[in-house]
Amino acid sequence: MREIVHLQAGQCGNQIGAKFWEVISDEHGIDPTGTYHGDSDLQLDRINVYYNEASGGKYVPRAILVDLEPGTMDSVRSGPFGQIFRPDNFVFGQSGAGNNWAKGHYTEGAELVDSVMDVVRKEAESCDCLQLNADLRKLAVNMVPFPRLHFFMPGFAPLTSRGSQQYRALSVPELTQQMFDSKNMMAACDPRHGRYLTVAAIFRGRMSMKEVDEQMLNVQNKNSSYFVEWIPNNVKTAVCDIPPRGLKMSATFIGNSTAIQELFKRISEQFTAMFRRKAFLHWYTGEGMDEMEFTEAESNMNDLVSEYQQYQDATAEEGEFEEEGEEEAA
Predict the structure, then answer these.
(1) Per the record, a Pfam family (predicted)?
(2) What does DSSP say about strands 59-61 and 51-53: parallel, antiparallel, or unpaired?
């Protein structure tokens, strides 16, 4: 079985992770105690990917929960699926990082690494054939044309409240339209201000593959100026015929767009304003950081913004590449 060991770290990671396990347990028909109460044999198919079968027919998530303070862990434990996790897999410190990156990276966090690795090793050893991120790596290889441009914009459709579903016709064209809408993106930037380098769209539910391909092609043809022309066939689609619970069909969107530079520009402006006054700097230097690290990080981020801009403006004119080749040969 191609098992996945699931790691969730920090407050955000654990809150998203707790929700993830609620959703995936619901899809597999597993209740908060870890017992199977499904209505179809399909739900038990490949259940070993995410769950370990323990004694008494109970299913235990292959999850490792990590944090520097016990607060978030306690709320996960007291949440709806808190009792499903293996108690040994909670790894936490006592002090917290206090929103201080240096504390998490150099001092408090570094002390926790060994015990986390130990739990990861135990989980990995109980697997038959560990998947080792192969699916995500395949996605990343196809989505990242240049090593530094690896910041994705995720999106989801339909993003409607349960009550307003009756006013919407859930169809492939509707999903495709919603999916590319900036309101459905989970990054604070507008994709219309940049161009897509690559896109991956994953549809779920019973639908025609032909229609999915037609709709995606339609989006590309109508909005060709928003896709870089020097990467042909830069949209990948996948369809899984089992819909998420409570919906007939859904779509997940992952886009690598040059518009994400807006986000970095905003951070850079805020950083420069604070760094000029050396605000809060002593908290970081006190934990072992150096002032030069901040200067390096700033120039690194400015380089990243310029790189995104460079590829946004790039065109596929053959002449340019021929000239470059001649110069190199000379």
Answers:
(1) Tubulin
(2) antiparallel
Q: Give the whole-angstrom CA distance, residue 78 versus residue 138.
A: 36
Terminal-residue alpha carbon distance, the chain: 54
Residue type, 47: I
Q: Which amino acid is at 269?
A: E
Dump pLDDT digits (tens) for 73-112. 999 999 999 999 999 999 998 888 888 888 888 888 888 9
- Yes or no: say if 106 and 24 are a contact pair by the CB < 8 Å rule: no
User: What does the pLDDT look like over 234-287, one tens digit per residue?
Assistant: 999 999 999 988 889 999 999 999 999 999 999 999 999 999 999 999 999 998
**pTM for the structure as a whole:** 0.85
Distance CA 294, CA 47 (A): 45
Task: Say whether 153 sits in a helix, a strand or coil.
Answer: strand
What is the pairing mode between strands 249-257 and 153-157? antiparallel
Residue 182: both structure tokens together? 């900036």
The answer to whether 205 and 248 are in contact (CB under 8 A) is: yes
d(CA 228, CA 197): 6
Distance CA(150)–CA(139), nearest Å, equals 11
What DSSP designation does 103 have? I
Cα separation, 97 vs 99, whole angstroms = 5
- Read out DSSP for 21-73? HHHHHHHHTB-TTS-B--SSGGGGTTGGGTEEE-GGG-EEE-EEEEESSHHHH
Q: Can you tell me the distance from the alpha carbon of 226 to that of 316, in angstroms, rounded to the nearest whole number?
A: 14
DSSP code per residue over 215-266: HHHHHHHHTGGGB-TTSSS-EEEEEESSPPTT-SEEEEEEEEEGGGHHHHHH
- In sequence order, the 6+-apart residues with CB closer than 8 A to the CB of 149 are 197, 256, 307, 308, 311
